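INFO  loader      accepted 1 record
INFO  loader      residues=105
INFO  predictor   begin
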Amino acid sequence: MTQPAVAANRSSTRTKAKSVSVSSRRIGDALHIAEQQGLLSGGRTLTIRGRMPSLLVEQARKKTGIQSDSKLLEAALANIAVADDYGEWLLSQRGTVSKDLDLEF
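INFO  predictor   done
INFO  writer      dumping tokens
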């Protein structure tokens, strides 16, 4: 491999590793919060089945590093269950500031 190709390959590898670590950290945080809220306690008694597009599952596995189907579903559900609703709240605030409010200093 030529010198520029080697450097580009290293850069691509670092970018992928950083992406996985950010995604893994975010999923780890969601799982931690779900655990703190008691959402992961108790026995594993519910079975969820579904057909998924293979590319969706493949990409989710790449981004999270999770290979187990059960753990992947658990991580996805935890991410949804403990999601921050800030964006939704922010949009709901649209138009709530009085038009008469003087914002100039």
